[in-house]
Specification:
Layout (H helix, E strand, L loop, with lengths): L1 H6 L7 E6 L5 E3 L4 E3 L4 E9 L2 E8 L10 H11 L3 E5 L4 E5 L4 E4 L5 H12 L4 H8 L18 H15 L4 E6 L5 H13 L11 E5 L2 H16 L3 E3 L10 E5 H4 L20 E5 L1 H4 L8 H6 L4 E6 L9 H6 L4 E3 L1 H7 L5 E8 H5 L29 E3 H17 L6 E4 L3 H14 L1 H4 L6 E3 L5 H12 L8 E4 L14 E4 L6 H9 L13 E5 L3 H4 L3 H4 L5 E6 L5 E7 L35 H10 L5 E3 L6 E9 L6 E3 L2 H11 L4 H9 L1 H12 L7 H7 L7 H10 L6 H11 L1 H5 L3 H17 L14 H4 L2 H6 L4 H16 L3
Parallel strand pairs: 5-6, 9-14, 9-15, 10-12, 10-13, 11-12, 13-14, 16-22, 17-25, 18-20, 18-21, 19-20, 21-22, 24-26
Antiparallel strand pairs: 1-4, 2-3, 4-5, 6-7, 7-8, 16-26, 23-24, 23-26, 26-27
Helix pairs in contact: 4-5, 5-6, 14-15, 22-26, 23-24, 23-26, 23-32, 25-26, 27-29, 27-32
Length: 801
């Protein structure tokens, strides 16, 4: 193969062997994750470094060449290449992506393939060729000091934007999911433009715009300043013209001093050659948006919009201003490539959200004032009326969830407003006093009201090597621009009617953090936000969605796993105006970016000028929560009952009911079986069996057998009663003092289950009142005899079918 390429004129430097395309999709099992095989092309032919032209898939001579065709085609399509080759050393097949495939006698030369590439990409001018061939910048370093090289999709995004610039396009849009490196794309694009002749040989003046400090400080400090040095400047408070790469907040550019005009207007309209608008869906692309005047003033510049949020309706302001994206890399693409974390989805419904709350006649709020007589629903909660127990129930559910998974897992809770966040912190703090005693900042509020202390807490929370804070409660502050790779749980307790805001919130969890073994994340949705914004074309399906049902006391009785929705839900209109100010457009947004609907407008009129109503004494419990699981086909979702899940997993064990009861009877074999049930492949625990199958009176092994084979359930008390009745001679064979220990063991088994049939249980009450373990063993004639007696008792307990 290599001789054939060399004969066609390909140098060693132009042939990249074992070319890594992605990292391999992360597949999440009940407890851990593993990677699928990464996509690695046998060979990629490059015209210049980082300018790939074709993929070559090479097979052994004993293998049919056709075996490599689809593989080569798949790799080339991923890399955006027009042609691929498959060979077995005897035959060479050329595959035109989207076209013909045919056998060829030899490989084309580098110049031939470059001309074909230019033809496919419609590259006709010297500037277009110069920009594509300009080297990518490798001066940035990873933590291990290796060069930070752009990923394949980042190179494609940069090149598509450069071609649009070279062709005179003034408004350009790139859509890349949160966590996929929009800043890297912006950095590489600027670097290429600076090294090209795009601006007549002069270094272009660049303005990087955003609406939050963190959105300008992070790219400036981590990407641009380390490479470009003193030519980088953040505009703040005055005009500065002695630099080349500027960063600025809209707010700073729109400010003025005294009678001076706004700062942006003090720059000539043609001063900047390129303007990069980060999170461009947010602040300025709406025609009547608060900061649209800034972009209008610099209309002669090329304006590049970056967003993580696709908007399907091209009439909306982002697409209306910038046009269709020249390149898009979706969340589902990032998950498929293994660059982003897959997610599980848990939808939780509270009874008062499902049924609404109506005060009793004459009912008073916590201040002793009458509660206006009307039905309050989810849209009123925390804005017009706050139910204390609703906040406490969310805190209880989340605390139990973390106890079942990982109490130290970084978690972000999004509340309706800062007041709601304050009360949520209090409720979570109360529910976790045991941990708060050791970690005073286990739960904290991080909002715009918390000032410098809040920013310090945020800096600690963002780090993956800190123990606290663990739970960060916010309303709006953490929705965007904050890189938190260690976040494992995203909890939504705020109504969201804005697609961009929803995407940004979810994006807080999509970053991988394999240093702490974070390869997936969980979304816990209390307000059905994930139903409103189901977008499988962009997001891909969740790994699973859970539905938990509870009784009237709020205790979990059943868990179901739901089928994935067939397609996107009906879209809720996105705000037409400025994302933060709510100005402009026909569907205004509130100060946190949520669309104000007609119903909300009525509520606002009713509550305008009045205080928020606080209510307590309301019964609140989890109505149900839903669990979706990825179907074996790897694409669709299905809701399954937990009982069905247990049935399928138990049959995989290939053990009969008798085998299971026999292994469960003695402590040693029970621990072996327990480990097998807890494994990644099975993922069943005794706690889940008792809680989800709603038979706390039965032993886990009986629940397991009942779910798998539908055999009748036998309660623990019935098993103990049968032992006393049918194995009376066995019990009477022991001395009275030993029989007393066995009788207590039967009582403890009835109350607690098989875990009491182990020697370790003899160290706690009520056995402690009977004596030490050594003293109890002496009643049987020694420790071996005692262990044998306990195992014999357990065998008789579980011998009853």
């Amino acid at each position: 193969m290599l001789p054939a390429l060399s004969a066609a004129g390909w140098s060693k430097d132009q042939i990249r062997e074992q070319y890594s395309i992605n990292d391999g999709k992360l597949v999440v099992s009940p407890r851990r994750h593993r990677r699928e095989r990464a996509l690695i092309a046998d060979y990629v032919l490059e015209y210049r470094d980082d300018v790939p032209l074709a993929v070559v898939e090479a097979k052994r001579t004993s293998v049919d060449v056709a075996a490599g065709i689809e593989q080569a085609k798949r790799y080339a399509r991923r890399l955006g290449l027009p042609v691929a080759y498959a060979t077995n050393g005897i035959e060479i097949w050329e595959i035109e992506i989207g076209g013909n495939r045919h056998r060829v006698s030899s490989f084309p030369s580098p110049e031939e393939l470059w001309q074909r590439y230019c033809g496919e990409k419609k590259i006709t001018t010297d500037l277009e060729r110069e920009l594509i061939l300009a080297p990518f910048d490798h001066r940035l370093r990873n933590n291990d000091l290796t060069p930070k090289r752009p990923r394949y999709y980042q190179r494609r995004a940069v090149n598509e934007a450069l071609l649009a610039i070279a062709r005179g396009q003034k408004r350009i849009l790139l859509t890349l999911a949160t966590g996929t490196g929009k800043t890297m794309v912006a950095f590489q694009l600027v670097s290429k433009l600076r090294e090209s002749g795009w601006n007549g040989g002069e270094k272009p003046r660049v303005l990087y715009l955003a609406d939050r400090n963190i959105l300008v400080d992070q790219p400036k400090d981590d990407y641009f300043e380390p490479v470009f040095g003193d030519v980088v400047h953040k505009i703040s408070g005055g005009v500065q013209r002695a630099r080349q790469i500027f960063f600025a907040l809209y707010q700073s550019l729109d400010s003025s001093r005294g009678d001076e005009a706004a700062l942006f207007s003090q720059y000539p309209p043609d001063y900047f050659h390129l303007i990069i608008v980060d999170e461009c869906h947010r602040g300025s692309s709406a025609e009547e948006g608060k900061w649209r005047g800034i972009l209008n003033h610099f209309s002669q510049a090329v304006q590049l919009g970056l967003t993580a949020t696709p908007i399907a309706d091209s009439e909306r302001h982002t697409y209306g201003y910038f046009g269709e994206p020249v390149y898009e890399y979706a969340l589902k693409d990032g998950i498929e490539d293994g660059f982003l974390a897959p997610y599980r989805l848990r939808r939780v419904h509270l009874n008062v959200d499902m049924t609404g709350f109506k005060p009793e006649p004459g009912q008073l709020d916590t201040s002793g004032n009458p509660i206006p007589d009307q039905v309050y629903t989810q849209r009123h909660y925390e804005k017009v009326l706050a139910i204390e127990e609703r906040t406490e129930e969310v805190a209880r559910y989340l605390t139990n969830y973390l106890a079942d998974t990982d109490r130290m897992a970084k978690t972000i809770v999004f509340c309706e407003n800062n007041d709601h966040a304050h009360r949520m912190v209090a409720a979570l703090n109360q529910a976790n006093l045991d941990l708060v005693a050791h970690y005073p900042d286990y739960v904290c509020r991080i909002t715009d009201d918390d000032g410098k202390p809040g920013r310090e807490l945020l800096d600690r929370f963002r780090r993956d090597d800190t123990d606290e804070p663990v739970i960060a409660v916010t309303s709006q502050m953490l929705t965007t621009g904050v890189d938190i790779p260690s976040a494992r749980n995203i909890v939504i307790v705020r109504r969201i009617n804005s697609m961009p805001q929803f995407k940004q919130i979810i994006g807080r969890g999509t970053r991988l953090c394999l240093d702490i073994d974070k390869g997936s994340f969980d979304i816990i949705d209390f307000v059905d936000a994930t139903v409103l914004f189901n977008d499988p074309e962009f997001d891909g399906p969740p790994l699973r969605v859970i539905n938990d049902r509870t009784d009237q006391q709020g205790e979990l009785i059943e868990r179901e796993e739901l089928e994935s929705p067939d397609g996107p839900a009906e879209e809720v209109a996105e705000p037409e105006g400025d994302f933060q100010s709510g100005e402009g457009g026909t569907l205004p947004a509130d100060d946190e970016g949520t669309v104000i609907t007609d119903e909300d407008r009525v509520d606002e009129i009713q509550s305008r000028g009045t205080r928020r109503i606080y209510v307590n004494g309301v019964e609140v419990f989890v109505w149900n929560d839903m669990h979706y699981q990825l179907h074996p086909d790897g694409q669709s979702m299905r809701m399954v009952q937990y009982r069905e899940y247990v049935h399928d997993r138990v049959l995989e064990l290939k053990l009969s009911p008798t085998d299971l009861r026999t292994q469960w009877a003695t402590a040693k074999s029970r621990n072996i079986l327990r480990e097998r049930l807890h494994s990644d492949e099975i993922g069943i625990t005794e706690e889940d069996l008792l809680r989800k199958l709603d038979h706390p009176e039965a032993d886990p092994i009986d629940l397991l057998i009942n779910a798998a084979w539908e055999l009748p359930l036998i309660s623990r008390s019935e098993r103990a009663h049968r032992v006393r009745r049918e194995h009376d001679q066995f019990l009477k064979s022991f001395a009275p003092e030993a029989r007393e220990v066995l009788d207590v063991l039967l009582d403890r088994f009835t109350e607690k289950g098989a875990t009491e049939l182990e020697a370790g249980a003899l160290r706690v009450p009520p056995f402690r009142q009977l004596g030490t373990v050594r003293q109890l063993a002496a009643r049987f004639g020694g420790a071996p005899q005692m262990h044998e007696a306990i195992d014999d008792l357990a065998k008789r307990i579980f011998d009853v079918a």
